[in-house]
Amino acid sequence: MRKTLFLLIIAAVAMSCGKQQQHREIPPVRVKTETAGTGTNPSQRPYTGIVEENQAVAVSFTTMGTVKTVAVNEGQQVVKGQLIAQIDDTQARNVLAASEAAVSQAEDALARYKQLHDKGSMSEVQWVEVVSKTAQAKSQLDAARKNLEDCQLKAPQNGIIGKKSLSAGETALPSQPVATILDINTVKIKVSVPEKEISDINADTKTSITVAAANAQTNGGKIEKGIVADALTHTYDVRINVPNPNHKLLPGMAAEVSFLISGSDSQNVITLPVTAVQKGFDGRLFVWTISQEKTAVRTTVTTGSLHGNRIEITSGITAGSIIVTEGYQKLGEGSKVVY
């Protein structure tokens, strides 16, 4: 009797656990989505670009020496004429002092010989030699002063220090960059455009630019279009000039660029990010769509041409479909999602 009661208790506990297991729900997968047909007009061709400085100037010493001080830091704003770095000027000062003494001696000799020359007691050849030595001494003095000035490296223009290459105590060689000064009052957004789309872009093509890192959105200016394609990717470099008076846009920041191509006859074509389209084991392309019940549905699609980092969807979905663009790696058919 006791054995039978014990077995009944075990069975009841097992059934209870089974019911709890059945009622345990799998938490929904968090994803990012995009509504097909919203902001996907091919006349606004989107690309990913990068911010570049308008101009970069590498500054260096003209003579060799030990770096005494570096007066700037990376990211610091400098003005034309501001001290960047200085090398040990002991030898340059000694040379200058010797040159000054030589000039003083030459001028004293010139004054004394002039009296003899004026009295006719000195030949013209001797007088010319004295004058020539005085001029040489002055020339050497000018060189010594320039050499001492060159021990200080000063900014040739306004800008921001992009990279500092030497520190105090290191040996600077002639023409070895000490720092790079960047002009970022105007920056350039560089994008790579496929060769079949480059003909639609000209110097005055309108652009819309978003730089998330700087929380900035602006319209681009003049466009500089490269004329030599990359041999591997068959793309052309395009650079868009953008005013940057507040220096919010810094070199290296990623930018989203849309070229506003006029005259497009493909206003109703749906495009999606290329990364949202996947290939199944059967070789067919598909995207994950969201049903009304907020579950994931594997939807087969066919694709058309590329538009920057987006691709045309010619069949499989319609405008208004909700497409998963991020987080699809954890999805399966019928997975519950939150977005």
What does this structure look like?
By secondary structure, the protein is α+β, with helices and mostly antiparallel strands. It has 4 domains: 85 residues, conserved putative lor/sdh protein from methanococcus maripaludis s2 fold; 89 residues, Beta Barrel (Elongation Factor Tu (Ef-tu), domain 3), CATH 2.40.30; 59 residues, Beta Barrel (OB fold (Dihydrolipoamide Acetyltransferase, E2P)); 60 residues, Helix Hairpins, CATH 1.10.287. The strands form 6 sheets. Strands 3, 5, 8, 10, 11, 12, 13, 14 and 15 form a 9-stranded antiparallel sheet that branches. Strands 7-6-4-9 form a 4-stranded antiparallel sheet, with no helix packed on it. The protein has a 3-stranded antiparallel sheet with strand order 16-21-20, with no helix packed on it. A hairpin with a 2-residue loop joins strand 20 and strand 21. About 1% of the residues have low confidence.
